[in-house]
Amino acid sequence: MARSRTPQLTPAQVKYIMANLDENYGPRIVVISIVLITVCTIVLPLRFIARKVRNLPWQIDDYSTIPAWVGPPPRFPYCSA
User: pTM surpassing 0.70?
Assistant: First the structure.
């Protein structure tokens, strides 16, 4: 069986990476994602409660919010372009 070779970084690529180590937006993206998921989780039931309190029937846009909040099933083949 043939071994695949791991590509090596050029010195210029290593220099660029080392110069920009402090520019990591990963933690900021995680925090923003958590905040948005929390807000959506709070607002979704409030939408249904508000319609119930005002005696308005639930319509297709109300029902479509649930699968949009849950998302696609695991290993669901979809294209994100």
Answer: no
